[in-house]
TrEMBL record:
Alphabetical list of Pfam families matching this protein: Polysacc_deac_1 (PF01522)
Organism encoding this protein: Tumebacillus lipolyticus
SUPFAM superfamilies attached to this UniProt entry: Glycoside hydrolase/deacetylase
InterPro entries: Glyco_hydro/deAcase_b/a-brl, NODB_dom, PdaB-like, Polysacc_deacetylase_ArnD
The NodB homology domain, residue ranges: 52-232
Protein name: Polysaccharide deacetylase family sporulation protein PdaB
Ranges annotated as spanning the membrane: none
Top-rank taxon, per record: Bacteria
Record gene name: pdaB
Length: 248
């Protein structure tokens, strides 16, 4: 399957009318008193850059066997930059792990409350789900989330526009480890190392559905470093490239 390495587009089950384009510079917004910049429109899959930088991202929606060992590996390997997307119910039942993610210095994003596809529901339902998770994460960690990865990565144009209106940047991925399918650690490692490109967002899981990630992650980290890659959070990756949004 041909891959356009320098394109960020919307994934959708229907025709989507917008995409986010990441370039080397960005145009400063007009100065307004303490008004935050609007989130980039569309969904972010990767950024356009020649620098060998990537963002490791981990989704957590259930379980307690995988998160601890994965955090141990990241610390042991000296990986100081990664982004974790946490669901509301998991955060509520595992606040100590969420606190540890924050204390290490990793970035925390929102993964919604009920793990169901957003396009199936109206905007009010989406707002409630995102807000519930946002509150749970804030109560556990003190973090006010502004990044979101929708459950199952499902969205359409309406969902994107609504999440943007809530102040959220929607984060997808360019390289999918498929660790949740449990293909074996060797295949997970091989897939990530072969597919990763500069500016990539790499999807992995720290839920108990992806216990093979524990075996694969050390080799992924070592392999990417051997290729010259450095790790950033998603926010740092976006900032390093600059952002311009356009409608099509």
């Amino acid at each position: 399957m041909a891959v356009l390495l320098f394109m960020i587009s919307l994934y959708s089950q229907a025709d989507l009318g917008s995409q986010s384009v990441f370039q080397g510079t960005s145009t400063p917004a007009p100065k307004q008193a303490d008004k935050p910049a609007p989130p980039p429109k569309g969904a972010i899959y990767k950024v356009q850059t020649d620098k060998k930088v990537v963002a490791l991202t981990f989704d957590i929606s259930w379980g307690e066997k995988a998160p601890g060992p994965i955090l141990d590996i990241l610390e042991k390997k000296g990986v100081k930059k990664a982004t974790f997307f946490l669901s509301g119910p998991w955060t509520t039942t595992h606040p100590e792990i969420a606190k540890r993610i924050k204390s290490i210095g990793f970035e925390i994003g929102n993964h919604g409350h009920r793990h169901d596809d957003f396009p199936k529901y109206n905007n009010q339902w989406i707002t409630e789900q995102v807000t519930k998770s946002e509150q749970a994460i804030h109560e556990a960690t003190g973090v006010k989330t502004n990044l979101i990865r929708t459950p199952n990565g499902a969205f359409d144009k309406r969902v994107i526009q609504h999440l943007n209106s809530m102040g959220y940047t929607v984060v997808q991925w360019n390289t999918d480890s498929l660790d949740w399918m449990r293909p074996g650690p060797d295949k997970i490692v091989d897939r990530v190392l072969k597919r990763t490109v500069p500016g990539d967002i790499i999807l992995m899981h720290a839920s108990d559905s992806a216990l093979q990630t524990i075996d694969a992650l050390p080799r992924i980290i070592d392999g990417l470093r051997q290729k010259g890659y450095e790790f950033m959070t998603v926010t740092e990756l976006i900032a390093s490239a600059g952002v311009t949004s356009k409608q099509e």
